[in-house]
Specification:
The complex is a heterodimer of chains A (490) and B (1126). By secondary structure, chain A is mainly α. Chain A has a domain of 172 residues: Serine Threonine Protein Phosphatase 5, Tetratricopeptide repeat. Chain A is built from 16 helices and nine strands. In chain A, the strands form four sheets. Chain A has a two-stranded antiparallel sheet. Chain A has a two-stranded antiparallel sheet with strand order 3-9. In chain A, strands 5-8 form a two-stranded antiparallel sheet. Chain A starts with 14 loop residues before the first strand and ends in a 13-residue tail after the last helix. By secondary structure, chain B is mainly beta. Chain B has a domain of 104 residues: Phage tail protein beta-alpha-beta fold. Chain B is built from 16 helices and 58 strands. In chain B, the strands form 14 sheets. Chain B has a 22-stranded antiparallel β-barrel. In chain B, helix 2 packs antiparallel against helix 4. Chain B starts with a helix and ends with a strand. The chains are: A mainly alpha (490), B mainly beta (1126). Strand 1 of chain A pairs antiparallel with strand 37 of chain B.
């Protein structure tokens, strides 16, 4: 009475791995899932910006309710159980895994897909994988290196060296540079996908961090700058500083790579750790907002870093008495929790146009923008002794229409020697790129290059805090790791 | 007992082939029918003696009851079916084919009781006076057919259909009342002329029939490990579901509350064999089905727990965690009988925690924030607070959230029927408010069971449950339990503020703390989970020839789940704002039909009895789900998705199939040597074709030593049986399709504001997953003494799970979102279970004490993959650890040593590793912080210093039930407890963790300060830089408890009183007062020591049993009820 064929049940809810990745639409879906990972709760939706900002010296606690794991990162008293450390680690490896799926399968797609499109899609995946591995290697060192998807629950050992990971990153970025379109090369509905200039700029960042090979980095940056010079409608600086941190001017001329957010799709899956479902918003506004949770505020040091009359201080921070909500409301002490004498973040806040942050924000994160490229270029030149050339790029940043700061050299930053110029550059990067998850890695690479001796926290310990702890959950569950694989000092 | 049977058999003439048309003594005809149908008749000898039938009435083609009719009718006799295999032969005028209520199932040969023999020669004695009266059972129903004899004489009579009798006796006579299934009573008549007697059921003398897989079996012949719980025990407690009623009732079964009303308790049979799904299989009226909350406990006749392979392996691939067989109440022939059973009561939390009041909170907050300087503006100084609108508010959040909650249960049933059609229909309404606001459960249920004798060969029957349940799901907002919100809520914040949208108040920025208002959550965040359940079976049985039967059974388990979640927009404070109403609706249709073909052969050949079974069956499962969501920023008035501005929906379809072949043979010789063997072959769609088939054999044997002739010399020994079993059972309890590698198409991204979908592999697929197999060994001993007044059962068992099915935790570096399922490891559970009882069933005062105790030892003997398994995290520390050579999921953490009293001590520790610049714990450790123990002596506290700090499995669990009956009064005391387990009490993280500004427990008043050093509460410092609140022995507590689970007293109004009051309209009436969880003795400091597992966490939720994340506590309940029979 039993028909055994009934036992053959195929999952009707999911695509089969054996039959997917056949055509262009499926290949695009595959790479879209990698981008979705960037929006996940453990990356740009919530934890990524916390981790970088709290590890830097740009931030301090805004009030009594900073959660313990975040406070522990701020104070450099974290270990491998820290939630931020764990979440970002997991988020980055999800990017790696999904990119690996694309890289392994899309080249075999054969229906209704051109080689150019296949290469572009693989190029996007390799760009994103490189981005993730750069975070991993720069924060944790020689992490497990997976370039193919894992097929058993067995773990992967740590890479033999950081170099092994950097080799993968550089190869990925080289491929991406070769196959991604120039900025402006996508249709409107694909704006936000990785472009050639993003690969070049990221490669420069990686070189500066890994080897400080300034000539090599400069070569990459030069390509970006050349493109900007030849395509001023596609790449350059925006006239208005805040266009880089507000919702109306996303994917603008200054943008090189952005993580896309939008409130238009609702907030249903915003708490999803893996970017599944409609997870298109970020909590950044609510977390940092002056009249929101205000968990993190600019550090005293950062606020003091701004030159007198630098309008970027006004653009970057809200203070009591400032107008918000389309200039119809005034920020008062009763709006703000914690120490109201200290400013709050204004970059990436939604209240410029509404009364409250309302938990969710649709503002894109500018991961790489042109001002950063110009300042990296300047740094390369300074380090190679070309102060004059460097000042040109630095002053280009200060010449933004609504900034118009006096050119270097100034009385405060004389720039007569490469050392003085470097001091000015460090200052310029800090004020221009404050709160953009740049400063943390700048401090680390400058410490590495023995350019500065800034400790981002009084609890910062040399020979320990150069790297984050490998999450306990990784060591615990990775059969190829032993407790001795933990980074030194943890 | 054996002697009675022997004496009865003497009276049976020897049998032999009779020529046609000869006369045969009636008792011989009955004897033959007994053999043919494997049934037993009870009759008074005077009723059958000297009566003869022609042998023509013997027709092997007819079914039993038809033949009985033909045989008995000429003699003005009839029969009464006592149980499945037992019939009483009675005089037609005495009995209207009515089965006494409360009659116990019985299967042993029931024979005339010795004193009845006297009646054979009854003669008339001098008569002095007439006595009339009524004999009733415990529920007040008249008991027909009771033999009443004047002691020392042969003068006697028998009760009529309503239990009435009239007898003329001498003064001061002693009347002996006896009836099958009841305890014999002797009552001195004195000078009374009216005598009402309540008969007590003779539970132990009648050996029970127990429900086993695909049938029933005489308990005497059971060779496996089985525990039964009666309807009476199930009904004793005011609980929503039958599984909750099992707590403490059966040895080896651990039941643990794990949530608000309507939440299924955790049920574990004989420990944890697997770290995956550990729930037993539920079989309801022969149909494997779930959803116990949808079953009205009042509808249940009996619950049987199958604990070893001999009994459970018949359910093959689903039986690894044991099987719980549930049988619902069936009808019996007779006049319609109406029963009303109703109770109402009140529940209350039995414990409150000590939380800070306003002045204490403010003082504590200032201290906690002293280091950072961020003292919240509202309480920064006394003047500021005095001027605030909250200066005079003192909110007791526990008081606001806990309430005296109503519980009520009302049932009505009608049963009755004819010889050919019997029915039992009923309805019930159960309502339980949660003791915490925003929780509750209600159920409407309807039951209709019927059975039919269609012809001489065919019989049929059906069961049907219809029910609707509505559960108010406890809000779980912001990733926190309501209890967590209660603890954390700031005491100077008022609950309500009618001026604000929504009407509630929560903290503002200037309070520096953002707990959610739990009352707001309870009142505004609506989450109703509703189930519409239909569970039914229908069968037809054909008696093909002597003892060979075919049964075709169709079962259907249908469930429609519907959940509506709604939260309006509100504005209760700066941190408690929702600008839009959020809506979510879930629908889930579950459809699972069973088609079962069952062949049985049951025959005795002399001393040999064979009972064989063959089954071919298929059960399919289909689930269709839909989830729709949306927001409404316009209005709070509409609560359906229809009003949403951006409705979106997802759906899913899940199907699985199980095809099975079953064979079983039971053989016994003279009821003395018992053997059984079974095998089941299952094929499931949940595994790849290569692995989908599994075989599950079992063998068992029993030896009833008490039946041996040489034991006749041991008169006090009424029963002694030794038994043993071995077999293999399986587990396939994993989600559908998990062996298939697939991409989830539900990713989404936008580019420049344009939405695009995405697909990725979320789960690491494992095409090699297959059955988990448990090898079960059981040795048991049953002992009965003094006519079974004393009973004792002892069991030793060992269960070894191999190829444990498990979601293997994988390193995050693999990038998967979902862990793969794999067959890993081996677990061994060993234990001993003892059940003992004493039943004093004679005299005016009857009483009984029955207890059980189980000891269990659990060990993960091997783990085939990886090194170990970490359980889910609490504040990012794994709470449990599972490794070889240890019990599954022991609590894992650091060991507290003491508090640092000085910087010198810290400096000394920092130098332990030879380098004073590297800290022992961390660079900001200060006096007042906890010093953790350096278990690996490397001079540094890190992840390697964690160890086994406790385990949730008790060393032993026990239950003790005592009853006492006296002159219509009944008293029940039920005690229950567990001993030797630990609980990880994470509420103490909130009560005394001091990690961040929230309200806290009064324990923080004793926090370390330079002037208060003699304490074990560390200093207060926000963000807890030393991680004093990591998972450690600090939060581990002894979870042992001993509980007065039930204390009740009842009174059954005498039948005569009822007769005079209601003119016989009411036939029985019992009223009672009862309590549950009256007293709890425990060292545990949380709300309740019954802690199941946490269901809200994502990830592997099976490895956090015994972690109290703020679990909804058990209530103390007082209730009163009435049971009426019409």
């Amino acid at each position: 009475s039993c028909n055994e064929d009934l036992l053959d049940k195929v999952n009707p809810n999911d695509y089969s791995l054996e039959t997917f990745y056949r055509n262009a639409a499926q290949s695009l879906e595959a790479v879209n899932a990698v981008y979705a990972g960037l929006q996940a709760n453990n990356l740009y939706n919530r934890e990524y910006f916390f981790l970088h900002d709290l590890l830097s010296d740009d931030c301090q606690g805004g009030g009594a309710q900073l959660e313990a794991p975040r406070g522990q990162v701020l104070n450099y008293v974290f270990d491998g159980s820290n939630k931020l450390v764990n979440d970002v680690w997991q988020g980055l490896y999800r990017i790696v895994h999904r990119a690996n799926l694309v890289i392994a399968n899309v080249p075999n797609a054969s229906e209704n897909i051109t080689d150019d499109l296949k290469n572009r899609i693989v190029g996007e995946a390799r760009f994103l994988r490189a981005w993730a591995y750069f975070d991993l290697v720069s924060l944790w060192g020689a992490v497990p290196l997976l370039t193919e998807i894992a097929t058993t629950p067995e773990g992967t050992p740590r890479a033999s060296s950081e170099t092994a990971i950097y080799e993968v990153i550089m190869a990925d970025l080289a491929f991406a540079e070769q196959h991604l379109p120039d900025k402006g090369g996508y249709a409107e509905s694909d704006k936000g996908r990785a472009v050639k200039q993003a690969a070049q700029a990221l490669m420069a960042r990686v070189i500066l961090f890994q080897t400080q090979d300034y000539a090599a980095a400069q070569a990459q940056l030069q390509k970006v700058i050349d493109f900007a010079n030849s395509h001023p409608d596609q790449l350059g600086l925006t006239a208005r500083f805040l266009d880089n941190f507000q919702e109306e001017n996303e994917n603008n001329v200054e943008s090189i790579f952005e993580v896309q957010f939008s409130e238009a799709f609702g907030t249903n899956d915003a708490w999803n750790g893996d970017g599944r479902g409609v997870a298109e918003i970020t909590f950044r506004g609510q977390e940092y907002g002056p009249n929101a949770w205000r968990n993190v505020i600019p550090s005293d040091g950062l606020v003091a870093e701004f030159e007198a009359n630098d309008p970027r201080s006004v653009y970057s921070f809200y203070r009591i008495g400032d107008l918000f909500n389309n200039e119809s409301d005034t920020l008062t002490t009763s709006d703000v929790q914690g120490n109201t004498e200290k400013p709050s973040w204004k970059k990436y806040q939604m209240i410029y146009k509404r009364a409250n942050e309302e938990l969710q924000s649709g503002i894109n994160f500018r991961v790489i923008r042109y001002a950063d490229v110009l300042l990296m270029m300047a740094e390369c030149m300074i380090q190679q002794g070309n102060v004059t050339g460097a000042l040109g790029y630095m002053n280009q940043v200060r010449d933004r229409a609504d900034v118009m700061m006096p050119h270097y050299p100034t009385a405060e930053y004389p720039c007569s020697t490469p050392q003085e110029a470097m001091t000015a550059l460090i200052h310029e990067r800090r004020v221009e790129l404050a709160g953009e998850q740049i400063r943390n890695r700048d401090i680390r690479r400058w410490r590495k290059a023995e350019i500065i001796d800034i400790r981002p926290s009084s609890n910062y310990q040399a020979n320990k805090h150069e790297l984050l702890p490998i999450p306990f959950v990784e060591i615990d569950n990775n059969s190829a790791l032993e407790p001795s694989d933990q980074n030194p000092g943890y | 007992g054996a002697q009675q049977i022997a004496s009865a058999r003497v009276l049976v003439p020897s049998q032999g082939d009779q020529p046609k048309e000869t006369l045969m003594p009636l008792n011989e005809v009955l004897q033959r029918l007994e053999q043919q149908f494997n049934v037993h008749f009870l009759y008074r000898l005077d009723v059958v003696l000297h009566k003869k039938n022609t042998s023509a009435v013997m027709n092997h083609e007819l079914d039993l009851e038809t033949q009985l009719d033909k045989v008995l009718k000429p003699h003005q006799l009839s029969y009464r079916k006592l149980s499945k295999n037992n019939y009483a032969i009675v005089e037609r005028e005495a009995i209207e084919l009515k089965r006494p209520t409360g009659f116990r199932e019985t299967a042993t040969p029931l024979r005339p009781i010795p004193h009845l023999l006297a009646m054979v020669t009854a003669s008339v004695q001098p008569q002095a006076r007439q006595v009339t009266g009524r004999v009733t059972d415990a529920s007040g129903d008249g008991v027909p057919g009771v033999n009443i004899v004047e002691r020392g004489t042969t003068n006697g009579t028998i009760t009529d259909v309503e239990g009435r009798f009239t007898l003329t006796v001498e003064d001061n006579a002693v009347l002996v009342f006896s009836a099958v299934g009841y305890l014999q009573q002797e009552i001195e008549i004195g000078n009374r002329s009216v005598l009402d007697v309540t008969m007590e059921e003779d539970v132990k003398a009648l050996e029970e029939v127990v429900v086993v897989g695909y049938g029933e079996q005489s308990r005497a012949k059971v060779t496996g490990a089985v525990s039964s719980v009666s309807a009476k025990e199930l009904d004793a407690l005011p609980v929503a579901s039958p599984d909750a009623a099992l707590q403490g009732r059966a040895a080896g079964v651990i039941v643990t509350n794990q949530g608000s009303p309507g939440t299924s308790p955790a049920v574990r049979i004989r420990g944890i064999g697997t770290v995956g799904n550990t729930s037993p299989l539920y079989v309801i009226d022969g149909m494997p089905a779930g959803g116990l909350n949808n079953i009205n406990p009042n509808d249940i006749e009996s619950v049987t727990v199958l604990k070893d392979a001999a009994t459970a392996a018949i359910y093959g691939n689903r039986a690894a965690n044991g099987v719980i067989m549930i049988t619902t109440k069936k009808g019996s022939s007779g006049k319609p009988r109406v029963n009303v059973d109703s109770y109402i009561g009140t529940q209350k939390a039995w414990r409150q925690l000590d939380l800070l009041n306003v002045p204490q909170y403010i003082d504590y907050a200032r201290d906690l924030q002293a280091e950072s300087g961020d003292v919240p503006a509202r309480i920064a100084d006394d003047a500021a607070f005095a001027n605030s609108p909250f200066a005079n508010i003192q909110t007791d959040w526990q008081d606001a959230m806990f309430r005296n909650a109503l519980i009520q249960d009302h049932n009505v049933s009608v049963s009755g029927g004819t010889e050919n059609a019997r029915y039992n229909v009923g309805g019930g309404y159960f309502q339980q408010e949660g003791i915490m606001l925003g929780t509750g459960f209600k159920r409407y249920s309807f039951r209709a069971n019927s059975s039919y004798t269609l012809s001489k060969r065919f019989s049929a029957g059906q069961t049907l449950t219809l029910s609707y349940t509505d559960r108010q799901v406890e809000p779980f907002s912001g990733g926190r339990s309501q209890i967590e919100h209660i603890i954390k809520s700031v005491p100077y914040i008022p609950i309500y503020d009618p001026t604000r949208l929504g009407g509630f108040r929560a903290t503002d920025r200037i309070d520096g703390s953002d707990p959610e208002n739990p009352v707001l959550n309870a009142m505004l965040r609506k989450n109703n989970a509703m189930n519409y359940k239909m569970l039914g079976t229908a069968f037809v049985e054909v008696n093909i020839f002597n003892g060979f039967k075919y049964k075709f059974l169709l079962g259907l388990d249908f469930n429609l789940f519907s959940s509506n979640q709604y939260a309006p927009s509100f504005n209760a404070g700066d941190f408690s704002v929702s600008t839009q109403a959020t809506l979510q609706e879930d629908r889930n249709i579950f459809f699972s039909p069973l088609i079962s073909n069952q062949f049985t052969y049951n025959r005795s050949f002399g001393q040999h009895t064979i009972d064989a079974l063959a089954v071919i069956e298929q059960q399919t499962y289909k689930t269709q789900n839909m989830q729709a969501r949306g927001i409404n920023s316009t209005s709070n008035d509409l609560q359906v998705i229809n009003s949403a501005t951006n409705p979106n929906a997802t759906t899913g379809l899940y199907e699985s199939v199980l095809q099975s072949y079953v064979g079983r043979v039971n053989y016994d010789y003279a009821g003395k040597y018992l053997f059984s063997a079974s095998i089941r072959r299952d094929a499931t769609s949940r595994f790849s074709p290569e692995y989908r088939v599994g075989y599950f054999p079992a063998v068992s044997a029993g030896y009833r030593i008490s039946e041996e002739a040489f034991m006749d010399g041991v008169p006090f020994l009424s029963d002694l049986k030794l038994r043993g079993s071995y077999g293999e059972v399986g587990n396939q309890n994993i989600p559908d399709y998990r062996f298939q590698a697939t991409l989830d198409p539900n990713f989404f991204v936008n580019f420049n504001g344009v939405g695009q979908s995405g697909s990725a592999v979320r789960a690491l697929a494992n095409k090699d997953i297959q059955w988990e197999t448990t090898k079960m060994t059981n040795i048991g001993l049953d002992l009965g003494l003094l006519d079974n007044r004393i009973t004792l059962t002892a069991e030793w068992f060992q269960n070894v799970n191999d190829n444990m099915l498990l979601e293997v935790p994988i390193p995050p570096s693999q990038g998967y979102d979902v862990a793969p399922i794999a067959n890993v490891g081996s677990v061994r559970n060993r234990g001993v279970e003892l059940t003992a009882g004493y039943n004093n069933t004679t005299g005016g005062l009857t009483w009984s004490v029955n207890g059980n105790i189980s000891f269990i030892n659990n060990e993960l003997t091997t783990l085939g993959i990886g090194k170990s398994i970490f359980g889910p995290g609490f504040e990012n520390d794994a709470v449990t650890y599972t490794e070889e050579g240890q019990p599954i999921q022991y609590f894992y953490g650091w060991v507290v040593d003491r508090l640092y009293q000085s910087q010198e001590e810290i400096n000394a520790d920092n130098a332990l590793d030879g380098d004073a610049s590297t800290p022992y714990q961390n660079s900001v450790t200060a006096p007042g912080d906890i010093r953790f123990k350096d278990l690996n002596s490397d001079g540094v506290i890190n992840a390697e210093d964690r160890t086994n700090i406790g385990h949730y499995l008790p060393d032993f669990t026990y239950g003790l039930n005592a009853t006492l009956n006296w002159r219509g009064f009944d008293l029940t005391l039920f005690l229950q407890g567990v001993s030797g387990n630990e609980i990880l009490n994470t509420n103490r993280y909130d009560l005394e963790g001091m990690t961040r500004l929230f309200n806290a427990g009064t324990a923080v008043l004793d926090r370390w300060t330079p002037t208060n050093t003699d304490t074990d509460i560390p200093r207060a410092i926000a963000t807890d830089p030393n991680r004093n609140s990591r998972v450690s022995t600090r939060f581990i507590e002894d979870g042992s408890y001993f509980r007065v689970k039930n204390l009740s007293i009842g009174y059954t109004i005498p039948a005569a009183t009822l007769q005079s009051l209601g003119n016989g309209f009411i036939s029985s009436l019992r009223v009672y007062l009862s309590s549950s969880n009256l007293l709890t003795f425990t060292k545990y400091t949380g709300y309740d020591p019954e802690v199941g597992k946490f269901n809200q966490d994502s990830g592997n939720t099976d490895l956090n049993y015994g972690v109290d994340y703020g679990q909804f506590p058990q209530a103390r309940t007082f209730f009163g009820g009435i049971q009426i029979g019409f």
